[in-house]
Amino acid sequence: MKFFRTLTATVTLVAALSVTAFAAPKSIKVATDATWPPMEMVDANKKIVGYDIDFMNAVAKEAGVTVEFKNTAWDGIFAGLDSGQYDAIISSVTITKERQAKYDFTEPYTSIGQILVVPKTDKTSKVIANLKGKKVGAQIGTTGAFEIKKVAGVELKTYDEIGLAFEDMAAGRISGVVCDEPVAAHFALQKKEYRDKFKVVGKSFTKEAYGIVVKKGNTELVALLNKGIKAVKAKKLDVKIHSKWVK
Amino acid sequence: MTDNQSPHKAIEVGDGAAIPHKSDSGLFTAWRIAFFGAIALCLFLAFGRSDQYMAIFKFVPDGILVTFKVTLGSILLAIVVGLIAGLGRISTNRFINGLASLYVEVIRGIPLLVQLFYIYYALGRFVKIPDMVSAIIAMAVCYGAYMGEIFRAGIQSIPKGQMEAALSLGMSRGQAMRQVILPQAFKVVLPPIGNEFIALLKDSSLVSILAVSDLLRRGREYASETFSYFETYTVIALIYLVMTLFFSKLIGIMEERLNDGR
User: How far apart are CA B138 and CA B189, in angstroms?
Assistant: First the structure.
């Protein structure tokens, strides 16, 4: 019986502790794959920064919660949400039908499109279809990868991080990279090592919108975040954040 | 790693899947249960109620082929590198000996994952090598170091008298090595090389970080698109298991044949 008494005591203690934890201002854990500059990245001080980070903090402030970010690899980021390691994902996640079937999204908070980046030496390619018989890279599990896959005759190569795809293109192993427009601009137009090597071609060829992802059925959190997003948009804070990060 | 065979008691622990031997009935039965169990489970999943598993089985086969290519290419190259390193390690030339020892020590001190990144991305800045080739080179450079130690131990396990006898018959050192020592050493090193092969087959999953579309990469691509993580990695694990068990058995049989022929 002693065992049960200890058990009951422990359970009570844990319950008491968690109640106190909940009494404090609510904190939510948010995952992000900080390898997607300028939307989310790790700066020189090992801090996670970027458009999404500023936006999330603004939303949280308006919604009256605090945020704790977790840097998580992209191809397991949804699995971590499934297993409850964090409450939400803000990581330039495009709202797609397939993702909506498994997860809940907030209202869209910004719109972007996919765009193609090729080496400057390539004078002819304008769209992915021009790269038939060649390899085109994207980050694994991103809408960019899905777009390449749609084009018959082009070999898709997927990378853990988009930076590795650009590095592989610099090494001449692939002929193009597809990713979100702001990210393409960051690598092809601003990054010193790549500025002279790559160019962004054409215009973005998809219309996509980012949303914050939560576990299916977590309507409470979606409502809370939507309230925050609405307030941020009303105060035009999102425009400020946009001009700070996206050039 | 196998060291000089001595009459002392020594435990043998391979880093590969345990290669079953008929005398080890416990392991032999375990092999059967695991192997046929895994195959049965694969079939059950593929033709079971949900067609999701079938979709995964249809998605990954080209990945299996790539895994094979990388493994086979790496082991062959690693044997060549290992033989050179092993011969270098027993060389009486101080420079060659030092160089081979340095290679073995440096490579064994760096994690394979780091080596893969290094050879693929760092060296990719200076030399243009296709992805699969650089994956194979990276794996071979790493495993060559371990293989070198196996060869060294194998060659040193052949009694010194044989070399002396061969030399007294008028053979040159190279001739004696090629015609007398190495053929015998190969028999000795075959089991540990078999173990290395199995270990390499499993470690080949690391090349998926290099955007080489091997079995694991294919699985990750599928999972990241469909979010069926549990189902995908169950299938991937089963396929790896069937492969390693199949090859461990094959190597076991090969070894037995060799012993019979003695």
Answer: 22
How far apart are alpha carbons A136 and A176 in whole angstroms?
5
B136: which 2 tokens? 């194979």
- Chain A neighbors of B226, CB-CB under 8 A: 98
Range of the domain at A120: 114-201
Residues A150 and A220 in one domain: no
3-state SS assignment for residue B142? helix
Of the candidates B72, B32, B39, B70, the one whose C-alpha atom is nearest the C-alpha of residue B57 is B39
Residues of B in contact with A145 (CB under 8 A): 221
Structure tokens at B26: 């416990």
pTM exceeds cut of 0.90: no
Peptide bond into B61 cis (omega under 30): no
d(Cα A82, Cα B184) in Å, to the nearest integer?
56
**Encoded tokens for A40:** 């989310």
Residues A164 and A179 in one domain: yes
- The answer to whether A223 touches A104, Cβ cutoff 8 Å, is no
Q: Are residues A80 and A135 in the same domain?
A: no
Are A160 and A225 found together in one domain? Answer: no
Beta partners for residue A118, in sequence order: A199
Give the tens place of pLDDT for each residue, B88-99. Answer: 999 989 999 999
Calpha distance B213→B132 (Å, rounded):
9
Which residues from chain A sit within 8 angstroms of residue B224, using beta carbons? 74-75, 78, 140-141
Instruction: Establish if B160 touches chain A: CB-CB under 8 angstroms.
Output: no
Structure confidence by residue, pLDDT tens digits, B76-89: 999 999 999 999 99
- Report whether the peptide linkage leading into residue B130 is cis, meaning its omega lies within 30 degrees of zero: no
ipTM computed for the complex: 0.78
